[in-house]
Sequence to fold (90 residues):
Amino acid sequence: MFSFTGVTLKEDQGFSTLCLELDVASVGETPEEAKEMLLEAATLHIEGAIEDGLPYLRPVPTDDDPRQTMAEQIVEIFRFKVDVAVHAYA
Fold:
């Protein structure tokens, strides 16, 4: 099980979410929808990286961290977990 930090931001139209450890983002019409989409995007990113033998962690650079650059747009900072099953084949 992997644990990550998500940030929900208010946009001009709707909301966006960003996973700070993976540099994966999503959007939605509501904060809840954006969070649900982020969970799916993070899961797919991790599964794809593991299947391709690539590193899954890609932290957001400090200069691009919305906690530093867009604090006025932050709706919520939250923790979430992703459980990924890995299958081995010979």
About this structure: The mean pLDDT is 93. The helical segments are 31-51, 66-69. The first strand starts at residue 2 and ends at 10.
